[in-house]
Design a protein that fits this description.
The model has no long low-confidence stretch (mean pLDDT 93). This protein starts with a helix and ends with a helix. The chain is rod-shaped and about 65 Å long. The protein has one domain: Helix Hairpins, CATH 1.10.287. The chain has two helices and no strands. It is 88% helix and 0% strand.
């Protein structure tokens, strides 16, 4: 059985990995926003269904990333709460 110190260290390592993932999620979200702006400029005035679908897909991807980020925040909070009880 792992000692309390080992458990704390493992949790802190996991939290660090989540924090690194949060940075990557934020960067991906920024890139998606840039892509949306680029596509909006390129397709300005186009009413083609494919352009609207592509833009909607990028919007959904942005929402999904935001949900992912929120989930990581909750995970870190729960891990920290558990660590505080050790």
């Amino acid at each position: 059985m792992a000692s309390v110190a080992e458990v704390r260290a493992a949790i802190e390592a996991a939290i660090q990995q989540v924090t690194e993932s949060q940075v990557a999620i934020s960067a991906a979200n920024e890139k998606l926003s840039e892509a949306q702006m680029s596509l909006a400029s390129a397709w300005d005035g186009s009413g083609h269904q494919a352009t609207q679908a592509a833009y909607a897909s990028l919007q959904q991807a942005t929402v999904d990333l935001e949900n992912c980020y929120t989930a990581t925040l909750a995970a870190v909070e729960q891990a920290q709460t558990y660590t505080a009880t050790l």
